[in-house]
Amino acid sequence: MNDYKLSIIIPTFNAENYLLDAIESVKNQTIGFENIELILVDDNSTDNTKSILEELCSNYTNVKSIFLEENSGSPSRPRNIGIESATSEYIMFLDNDDTYQENFCEKMYSTIVSYNAEIVTCRNYDIYGEKISKYHSILDNKDNLIILNSIEDDESLLSTTSMLIWNKIYKKSLFLENNIHFPTGTLYEDVYFNLQAYSNANKIIFLNDFYGYNYHIRTEGEDKSTSQDFKKENLIKFSNGLNNIFIYLEENEKIFKNFESEMLIGFTKWLLLTDCGCDNKLKLFRKFKKYYKRYGIFVRLYHIPLIQNILINLGIKFISLNDLSFKIICKLFSSLHK
Fold first, then answer.
1. Residues in the chain where the model's pLDDT stays below 70
2. Domain identity same for 280 and 142
3. Model confidence pLDDT, tens digit, residues 285-322
4. Structural domain containing residue 265
5. pTM for this structure?
6. Are residues 110 and 186 in the same domain?
7. Given this model, what pLDDT does residue 276 score?
8. Do residue 99 and residue 189 come from a single domain?
9. 3-class DSSP state for residue 2?
10. Do 31 and 144 fall within a single domain?
11. Could you read off the pLDDT of 30-46 as tens digits, one per residue?
12. What is the pLDDT of residues 134-158, one digit of tens each?
């Protein structure tokens, strides 16, 4: 039996157009591909993805492909199966349309081992076609190396960038000992997963000056990124995911005000931009009304300019007044996006 340094889990679905780029970025890692256990879990693809995985398995002994007989509709179940199948002590994730920087695995692995940490996270590049940019967040104003014994030592780090799963390496025992898994049938599944992980971790490292992951964002076509696909089905999944997150916070008596506010803003964006009728949106709005009511007018979102931040805060507070105020904003957005 091979003793791999780390396991990389890739959920796949109809990824024939970009999967090989993701695989190549793993094969080219400076840590050495022979030190990586690559686990690919296919969610019943209908294109040529399965053939690509079968060929990879036949060519490499460290590649494991798992084929689901029914499509689960999200990467959650494939990721959970990947965790169960992993044999190494450390786990990383990669989306089937993204890529790693060449030294990503080596840097993350050496850090988590050196510090005996349970989570190490870094920064990522956002890639829109040929355009590459660095995502701005509260991390821009932090030290290059951040070491926490608990996420409650600096709750501000529960930001959008920090809640991604694919710019991290985890100690697998953290998942097993705390029954941490991805919820199925929802979106925000990565946020819920990391909320559990951060809440139970005893040492967390932020490599704030290291950009190791390439997040490819597709804004056009049938295969555009879920984060850009404003349809009713996804809105409902986001609603279910957000509800899971708020329930987890309440059940575990966690109070992360800025995190809650940032999640609510992201959901509001989806609520307003999705074309599903004002009455349907109002039903979802009422589901989270108590959270809108306690939204803080002075919430500071460090990844956007101050003026924009103030306008968002005023908008959220206006929406939270009553059903009529929500309908006014809803109809305004509908008219602007016709």
1. 1, 160-161, 219-230, 336-338
2. no
3. 999 999 999 998 888 877 778 898 999 999 999 999 99
4. 230-336
5. 0.92
6. yes
7. 87
8. yes
9. coil
10. yes
11. 999 999 999 999 999 99
12. 877 778 889 999 999 999 999 888 8
Domain shared by 163 and 262, yes or no: no
Helical axes 306-319 vs 257-273, angle rounded to 10°: 80
Q: Are residues 139 and 248 in the same domain?
A: no
CA 72 to chain centre: 18
Residue 1, in any domain of the structure: no
Which amino acid is located at 153 in the chain?
D
Which run of H or E residues covers position 146? Answer: strand 145-148
Burial of 154 by CB count in 10 Å (0-12 exposed, 13-18 middle, 19+ buried)? middle
Among residues 277, 259, 257, 272, the alpha carbon closest in space to that of 337 is found at 272
Question: Bridge-partner residues for 64, per DSSP?
Answer: 39
How far is Cα 20 from Cα 258, in angstroms, rounded to an integer? Answer: 39
CB atoms within 10 A of CB 135: 17
Last residue of a domain, one of 185, 216, 247: 216
Residues 211 and 244 in one domain: no
How far apart, in Å, are the Cα atoms of 245 and each of 177, 252, 256?
20, 11, 11
User: In this predicted structure, what is the pLDDT of residue 222?
Assistant: 58
Task: Tell me which of 216, 250, 273 is where a domain ends.
Answer: 216
Long-range contacts of 132-135 (CB under 8 A, 24+ apart): 132/214, 134/211, 135/161, 135/215, 135/303
Contact 223/217 with Cβ under 8 angstroms? no
Split into its structural domains, the chain has a count of: 2
